[in-house]
């Protein structure tokens, strides 16, 4: 092949040689494996991707790369291997060596310095270090624009949300890489900055923006980098879904690679596919077919990261495609030329077989150490310091105690040391020496413990240091807060680790309510430090002192300590368009919201309910499966209800529905349901319904709190959480509307089937006898007074309404009571009901089972009872017995505390049907709501 083409050496007449140059592959482990050797020698593999799993030190990396190149040279390769590496800095460094490889700020940290020159210097220094080890292709820069910044996993790996700023820093980094002799590769085309996770684990994330929107925003950095001479481009494996564009995997799409990247953006360099081993792609298409599709789409190099089986499958698929005439000779020549041009710029046999290694790295170390310190010192950002708490000497006496609260988070994603720790841990106990050596790239306890030591070395008073988790503020935290003179809270991506957000707000509230010994209110100083994404509290003015470091390497935290003690004045600034004036995802369309009219809208609402249930996640049962329009209408004089629709007045179709209830007894305003036609989402219909609901609930006299999720009707008990990626989207949607989803309460509905063969778990009946209570079953209003007095110990929304409905319907409902033997006082109750009860009308799950079903609802245990779990299980156990005696085949628990003993109920035969997060807040939270 190609012997007639003057631009190609006759050596490329061998089809296998050409094919090998169009693959990039990886392998497992720190040494050359028989598999990768065979790929190089037999299949002429032309490019290799190294990851943290391959790299242990600078010296080992140099030897590994040299051995790979010698293998290719001895096998007769006409040109050296292209060897690529992710070395983005911040938390993403594949090569770590505490002695010879320096740590530098993340892309967003560099943007915070405000200096493109510094970004260039850092990029060049980074490239010089890995080039010295024999690497010739930098898998960067990251050119994504964070158009949905607060919910994206990319985080600080890219510059921010301003396309021009991302572009200028990306180009500066690219030039730094190229000037150090490396080839550069932009990623992740067409953008990973606005991904939405809409489906299951086997679905890729989706770009829903139109091409027009991408063109004026996300594509700007890619366009400019191409203009400045970018060598290669990685095309992502994401899906694209917008008007006129429906792409399953971008890197397999001719529309994306040939049309958009080649023709519209005029890219002439090497196009590298995303890894075809990704589960979604290999499962849906297959690696062999995916390889042919990638080449035909316009990719020059197909990436397969590590699986030898998949790598062989890709080669065979490629050969079969050639044999079947699916790829022309001319097409393969084009890709080969691009790969050879890139290699010609970045490597040669002389260079590949003589990597400088440690000797040159030793010479670079002093100047690079200085550069690293300067970059980190320039990136630290004090976003706010309202009360002038900085430096700490402003507010603390020498002997005062400082409390440091740090989260338990995972190791940094791509640090070699953290990968090595993971591997060692899987084989046994990690080497303590490795734990110590890797402190500069470890998160969690190790690196934060070193932060505590650094803080303590600077002062006489003690530094009290403890961690926090999703369990929230514990008594030990409260004791330490009371003891300390100031509190320093560290967060790491609190927008994705929502427990951190809730914990920080809770501690801030505690400190704001501190009192002096004389009884005067004395606010305790609180400083919050975001050590990853700056978005954690950037717009929360209630956090008065807020600092951002952009990563949590030891170098970054050393600079942080210097800022806290006033050793230098930080000059970093938040990158992009973050500012107090910016409002997230504000609705741009305000739909006409009308009050629900039962006569007019019932049929159309039934159609909407069916469409919403049918559009549910495949394989999962919708909460609306057996609901009708009547399921939302209570007609209870003690509950004020108001429901709303967005509809088409011409066709009478209902596009969206929202139900609200005001429970007078508890002063709680509730959004019981809010759903939109699946075909009309992202048009602000939900926003408009939500705003109307909040405004209506605010008008009720005596409203004390608001809640998402309703016990009655028992359809949505809160935000649904059992639908994979949908859970994250829904939580984010409500959070952006102002709900603090971090402080939610887990609730669920459960079901037990096959009651005809059911029997209580061994030992449970005996443990019931030890509960220290007498049980009975009562019916009717004559028993109301003691029951209603008892449930006042629990102020949950809708509780009294459920009990009153049951007491008023003795033919179909009953109350199981647990009484203290000595005085007959009630210590526990639960409601029983069957399918003929009024209560069952508001529990659609009762109709879902397809058989005679009974229900158990709203257990209330007196707070004075010591054996809470035993008594609760006893009430449920007796309830199942009664329901079984009535001939029922199934039993539903329609509103159970998700934090209760679910395993205990599992032992009784129950399984979880639906899970929710009930979210509550003080009514005062909603002071102003935009118009619908």
TrEMBL record:
Q: Which residues form a coiled coil?
A: none
Q: Name a biological process GO annotation.
A: carbohydrate metabolic process
Q: Which GO MF terms does the UniProt record name? A: hydrolase activity, hydrolyzing O-glycosyl compounds
Q: What sequence ranges are listed for the domain Glycoside hydrolase family 3 N-terminal?
A: 19-341
Instruction: State if Hydrolase is listed as a keyword.
Output: yes
In terms of InterPro entries, this protein maps to:
Acyl_CoA_acyltransferase, GH, Glyco_hydro_3_C_sf, Glyco_hydro_3_N, Glyco_hydro_3_N_sf, NagZ_Beta-hexosaminidase
> Per UniProt, which keywords does this protein have?
Glycoprotein, Glycosidase, Hydrolase
Tell me which family the UniProt entry assigns to this protein: Belongs to the glycosyl hydrolase 3 family.
Protein name as it appears in the record? Glycoside hydrolase family 3 N-terminal domain-containing protein
State the taxonomy lineage.
Eukaryota, Fungi, Dikarya, Ascomycota, Pezizomycotina
């Amino acid at each position: 092949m190609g012997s007639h083409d003057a631009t190609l050496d006759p050596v490329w007449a061998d089809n296998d040689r050409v094919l090998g140059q169009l693959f990039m592959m990886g392998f497992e482990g720190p040494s050359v494996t028989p598999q990768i050797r065979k790929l190089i020698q037999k299949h002429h593999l032309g490019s290799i991707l190294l990851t943290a799993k391959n790299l242990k030190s600078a010296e080992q990396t140099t030897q590994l790369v040299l051995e790979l190149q010698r293998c290719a040279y001895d096998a007769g390769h006409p040109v050296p291997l292209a060897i690529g590496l992710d070395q983005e800095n911040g938390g993403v460094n594949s090569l770590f060596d505490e002695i010879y490889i320096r740590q530098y700020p993340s892309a967003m940290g560099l943007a915070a310095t405000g200096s493109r020159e510094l970004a260039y210097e850092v990029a060049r220094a980074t490239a010089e270090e890995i080039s010295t080890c024999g690497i010739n292709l930098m898998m960067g820069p990251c050119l994504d624009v964070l158009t949905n910044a607060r919910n994206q996993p990319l985080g600080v790996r890219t510059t921010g949300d301003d396309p021009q700023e991302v572009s200028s820093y990306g180009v500066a980094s690219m030039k730094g890489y190229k000037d150090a002799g490396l080839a550069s590769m932009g990623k992740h085309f067409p953008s990973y900055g606005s991904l939405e996770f809409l489906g299951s684990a086997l679905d890729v994330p989706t770009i829903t923006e139109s091409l027009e929107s991408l063109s004026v925003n996300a594509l700007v950095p890619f366009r400019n980098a191409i203009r400045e001479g970018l060598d290669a481009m990685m095309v992502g494996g994401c899906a694209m879904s917008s008007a006129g564009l429906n792409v399953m995997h971008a890197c397999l799409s001719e529309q994306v690679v040939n049309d958009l990247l080649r023709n519209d953006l005029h890219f002439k360099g090497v196009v590298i596919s995303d890894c075809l081993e990704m589960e979604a792609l290999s499962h849906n298409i297959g690696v062999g077919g995916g390889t042919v599709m990638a080449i035909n789409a316009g990719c020059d190099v197909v990436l397969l990261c590590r699986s030898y089986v998949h790598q062989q499958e890709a080669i065979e698929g490629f050969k079969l495609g050639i044999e079947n005439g699916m790829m022309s000779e001319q097409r393969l020549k084009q890709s080969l030329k691009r790969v050879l041009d890139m290699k010609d710029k970045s490597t040669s046999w002389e260079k590949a077989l003589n990597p400088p290694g440690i000797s040159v790295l030793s010479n670079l170390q002093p100047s690079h150490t200085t550069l690293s310190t300067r970059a980190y010192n320039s990136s630290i950002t004090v976003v706010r310091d309202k009360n002038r708490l900085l430096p700490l000497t402003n507010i603390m006496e020498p002997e005062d105690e400082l409390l440091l609260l740090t989260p338990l988070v995972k190791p940094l994603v791509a640090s070699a040391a953290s990968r090595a720790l993971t591997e060692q841990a899987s084989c046994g106990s990690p080497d303590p020496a490795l734990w110590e050596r890797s402190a500069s790239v470890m998160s969690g306890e190790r690196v934060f413990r070193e932060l505590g030591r650094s803080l303590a070395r600077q002062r006489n008073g003690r530094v009290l240091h403890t961690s926090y988790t999703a369990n929230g503020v514990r008594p030990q935290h409260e004791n330490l807060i009371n003891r300390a003179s100031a509190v320093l809270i560290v967060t790491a991506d609190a927008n994705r680790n929502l427990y951190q957000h809730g914990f920080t707000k809770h501690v801030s509230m505690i400190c704001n309510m501190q009192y002096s010994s004389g009884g005067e209110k004395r606010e305790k100083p609180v400083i919050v430090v975001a050590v990853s994404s700056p978005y954690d509290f950037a717009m929360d003015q209630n956090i008065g002192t807020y600092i951002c470091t952009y990563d949590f390497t030891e170098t970054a935290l050393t600079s942080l300590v210097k800022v806290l003690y006033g050793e230098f004045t930080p000059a970093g600034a938040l990158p992009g368009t973050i500012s107090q004036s910016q409002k997230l995802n504000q609705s741009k369309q305000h739909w006409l919201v009308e009050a629900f009219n039962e006569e007019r809208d019932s049929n159309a609402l039934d159609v909407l309910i069916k469409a919403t249930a049918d559009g549910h996640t495949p394989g999962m049962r919708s909460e609306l499966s057996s609901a009708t329009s009547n399921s939302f209408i209570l007609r209870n004089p003690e509950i004020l209800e108001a429901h709303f629709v967005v509809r088409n007045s011409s066709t009478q179709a209902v596009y969206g529905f929202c139900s609200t209830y005001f429970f007078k007894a508890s002063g709680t305003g509730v959004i019981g349901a809010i759903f939109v036609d699946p075909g009309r989402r992202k048009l602000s219909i939900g926003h408009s319904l939500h705003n109307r609901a909040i405004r209506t609930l605010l008008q009720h006299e005596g409203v004390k709190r608001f809640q998402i999720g309703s016990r009655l009707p028992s359809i949505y008990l809160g935000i649904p959480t059992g639908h994979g990626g949908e859970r994250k989207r829904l939580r984010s949607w409500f959070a952006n509307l102002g709900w603090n989803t971090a402080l939610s309460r887990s609730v669920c509905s459960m079901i037990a089937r096959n009651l005809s063969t059911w029997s209580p778990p061994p030992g449970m009946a005996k443990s019931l006898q030890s509960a220290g209570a007498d049980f009975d079953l009562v019916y009717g209003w004559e028993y109301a007074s003691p029951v209603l007095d008892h449930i006042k110990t629990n102020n949950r929304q809708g509780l009294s309404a459920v009990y009153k409905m049951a007491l008023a319907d003795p033919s179909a409902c009953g109350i199981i009571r647990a009484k203290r033997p000595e005085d007959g006082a009630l210590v526990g109750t639960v409601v029983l009901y069957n399918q003929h009860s009024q209560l069952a009308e508001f529990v659609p799950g009762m109709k879902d089972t397809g058989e005679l079903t009974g229900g158990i609802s709203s257990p209330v245990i007196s707070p004075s009872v010591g054996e809470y779990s035993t008594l609760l299980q006893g009430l449920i156990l007796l309830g199942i017995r009664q329901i079984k005696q009535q001939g029922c085949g199934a039993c539903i628990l329609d509103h159970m505390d998700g934090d209760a003993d679910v395993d205990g109920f599992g032992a009784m035969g129950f399984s979880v049907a639906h899970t929710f997060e009930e979210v509550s807040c003080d009514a005062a939270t909603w002071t102003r709501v935009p118009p619908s």
